[in-house]
Design goal:
Chain B: This is Glutaredoxin-dependent peroxiredoxin. The complex is a heterodimer of chains A (about 230) and B (about 190). Chain A has helices at about 10-20, 50-55, 95-100, 115-135, 150-155, 175-180, 225-230, and strands spanning about 80-85, 90-95, 105-110, 140-145, 165-170, 180-185, 190-195, 200-205, 205-210. By secondary structure, chain A is an alpha/beta fold. The chains are: A alpha/beta (about 230), B alpha+beta (about 190).
């Protein structure tokens, strides 16, 4: 299988062409300089590197857990996630962007368009978003190992507004770094490697509250439990 | 480190993307090329539960049938949604007139995303959608491509094929997944 190590220019061209459609015009905004190697793909001025992306190994099978699972008191590992902004543009954002100097609630679902995720987990946070923000939460984000296109479609399908940011951990890099992978490849459900369900509160990137479920079960990672912990 | 990676990247010219071939070619048996591979029919979770998350072996899809099958990088993405699927939707009657039993769309997505996408495109009547969630089908045919750099992970090239009783009669693979020149319905209609 070919590893897509492309030059910065051809990469952005390829993504742009992949994104262009006649009905919606999606422009990938990026900054490419020949002097500085790292290609910037973000719409915020904060610079960051694309290392996690370029290093991704294309096989779906996860390595044996050499990463210990995240716990309270740990600093969240940095990673690059992607999403579609309200202007329809594909953007990338880092965990640092989401958490630095902020109170951030991050919750993860195994898969878009699957029942618990669609019917209970995400809607729960959308409902409680105002209350969470009233308690000082700056950012509420939902992460899943789905690509940004699917996350956007799921967001529209569930009519989620700006209260909750749906971000894609498309290559599973962040999930892996957290030690929160859920390997469903041998299960016939057809989901591959996903994320365990969890919710966490990070203050300036440090985990203060963590509710990590076993697999995809839904016991304590909902919005109400997070509200109680605040 | 980043600079080293990009220096390394310069060794691989964009022509890495310019591939118009696969492991299989016209005349090969598609089922034999991908033994033990099954696809997941696009379905909602409830349908999955009630069917015990059954998978569909390739044999069931191709044996004794005239099948037009096309693969694309991803559900909900630009060219796939705006051009590729609609091209087959529009021409479904022409395919039936030529004796084609089924038109299948496959992508490296899970079956639930495929299902939601197919319903959004209102294409389920004309086309059967299948998810190659672990990419095994495309890997076996060497039609897989690593789109991690575009934040998509392992995906498939854009391609189309006409398969009669498991034998590939025509195979078209785009040079780059963003292109849509040879894998549309009109091209393969002429090849049937």
């Amino acid at each position: 299988m070919a590893t897509a190590t492309t030059t910065a220019a051809s990469f952005s061209t390829a993504v742009r062409r992949l994104c262009v459609s006649t009905s919606t015009s999606i422009r990938l905004r990026h900054v490419t300089t020949s002097a500085r190697p790292p290609t910037r793909l973000i719409s915020t001025p904060t610079p960051h590197r694309l290392l996690p992306l370029l290093r991704f190994s294309a096989t779906a099978s996860p390595s044996s857990t050499t990463v210990s699972t995240i716990s309270v008191g740990d600093k969240l590992p940095d990673a690059t996630l992607s999403y579609f902004g309200s202007d329809g543009e594909l953007k990338t954002i880092t965990i640092a962007d989401l958490t630095k100097g902020k109170k951030t609630v991050l919750f993860a679902v195994p898969g878009a368009f699957t029942p618990t995720c669609s019917q209970k987990h995400l809607p729960g946070f959308v409902e409680k978003a105002k209350e969470l923000k009233a308690k000082g939460v700056d950012v509420i984000a939902c992460v899943s190992v789905n690509d940004a296109f699917v996350m956007k479609a799921w967001k529209e399908d569930l009519k989620v507004g700006d209260e909750v940011l749906l971000v894609s951990d498309g290559n599973g890099v962040f999930t892996k770094a957290l030690g929160a992978e859920l390997d469903l490849t041998d299960k016939p459900v057809g989901l591959g490697v996903r994320s365990r369900r969890y919710s966490l509160l990070a203050e300036d990137g440090v985990v203060k509250v963590l509710n990590l479920e076993e697999g995809g079960s839904f016991t304590n990672s909902g919005a109400e439990d997070m509200l109680k912990a605040l | 480190m980043a600079s080293a990676l990009v220096r390394g990247a310069r060794r691989f010219p964009p022509a890495m993307w310019g591939r118009g071939f696969a492991k299989v070619a016209s005349g090969d048996d598609i089922v034999a090329a991908a033994p033990d591979v099954a696809l997941q029919k696009a379905r909602s979770w409830d349908e999955g539960v009630s069917s015990n998350f059954s998978t569909t072996p390739l044999n069931d899809l191709f044996q004794g049938k005239k099948v037009v099958i096309f693969g694309l990088p991803g559900a909900y993405t630009g060219v796939c949604s705006a051009q590729h699927v609609p091209s087959y939707q529009k021409n479904i009657d022409k395919f039936k007139a030529k004796g084609v039993n089924s038109v299948i769309c496959v992508a490296v997505n899970d079956p639930y995303s495929m299902n939601a996408w197919a319903e959004k495109l209102q294409a389920k009547d004309a086309i059967e959608f299948y998810g190659d969630f672990d990419g095994k089908f495309h890997k076996s045919l060497e039609l897989d491509i690593d789109l991690s750099a575009a934040l998509l992970g392992p995906r498939s090239h854009r391609w189309s094929a006409y398969v009669e009783d498991g034998k590939i009669k025509a195979l078209n693979v785009e040079k780059a997944p963003s292109e849509f020149k040879v894998s549309g319905a009109e091209v393969i209609l002429d090849q049937i």
